[in-house]
């Protein structure tokens, strides 16, 4: 018996390697994969070469809601390069239209003086910007390590079970929301809520459905701060 075999046997006795099936079973859910193995849909959609070259929308013929225009123009003043406002500007368009629709992108492009293609490249990269209609209310359940160890998969399943046909709510898992101290948690249209118990899910979904404040006592932005000036 070689020295390598002896070492392998000793190590195997001390730290037995789990069977492959057991290791795989430790992961309860496999994250969805799209074309090319990506977690983001649409990133490799082919370009339509039959279309005319993109142009910047004409302000004279492109109607933009006054509030959206004012918000985007304000965002553009906050960056040395106005194009850096693309992400928040698209988010503003998404809030108004429910998703980054062709109309929303056209309006944002008109105000920012860029081509719609420039913004589509941004919107299709970031998965919090939706290039397809999914539902006006977005519920992201964090599924990263801290939340996963505290029942994130069960929480996401419970939220989805509570949804009814016709609910304008998009619930999905999210890689990480950076709020490990309130795991398991979720973001409801940007409002961080947690920790969420399974028996609170029916109340939470009903509040979301009715447009009410979701679990107010568990919202991160309502927790008291050590800074006395930060507490309203």
Explain this structure:
This protein has 232 residues and is α+β, with helices and mostly antiparallel strands. It folds into two domains: 33-44 and 54-132, Orthogonal Bundle (Arc Repressor Mutant, subunit A), CATH 1.10.10.1590; 137-228, 3-Layer(aba) Sandwich (Glutaredoxin), CATH 3.40.30.10. It is built from nine helices and four strands; from the N terminus they run ααααααβααβββα. It has helices spanning 3-14, 20-25, 66-76, 86-97, 102-112, 116-123, 145-149, 152-162, 201-210, and strands at 137-142, 169-174, 186-188, 191-193. Strands 2-1-3-4 form a four-stranded mixed beta sheet, with helices on one face. Helix 3 (66-76) packs across helix 5, helix 4 crosses helix 5 (102-112) and helix 5 (102-112) crosses helix 6 (116-123). The termini are far apart. The mean pLDDT is 86.
Describe, in short, the structure shown:
With 232 residues, this protein is of the alpha+beta class.
Q: What distinguishing features does this structure have?
A:
232 residues, Glutaredoxin, 37% helix, 2 domains, 4 strands, 9 helices, alpha+beta, four-stranded mixed beta sheet
- What is the name of the CATH class of the largest domain? Alpha Beta
The CATH homologous superfamily of the largest domain: Glutaredoxin
Terminal Cα span: 73 Å
**Average pLDDT score:** 86
The 3D shape can be described as globular
Structural class: alpha+beta
Count all strands and give the number: 4
Largest sheet: 4 strands, mixed
- Percent range for β-strand residues: 5-15%
Oligomer: single chain
Helicity level, as a percent range? 25-40%
Alpha plus pi helix count = 9
Strand order of the largest sheet: 2-1-3-4
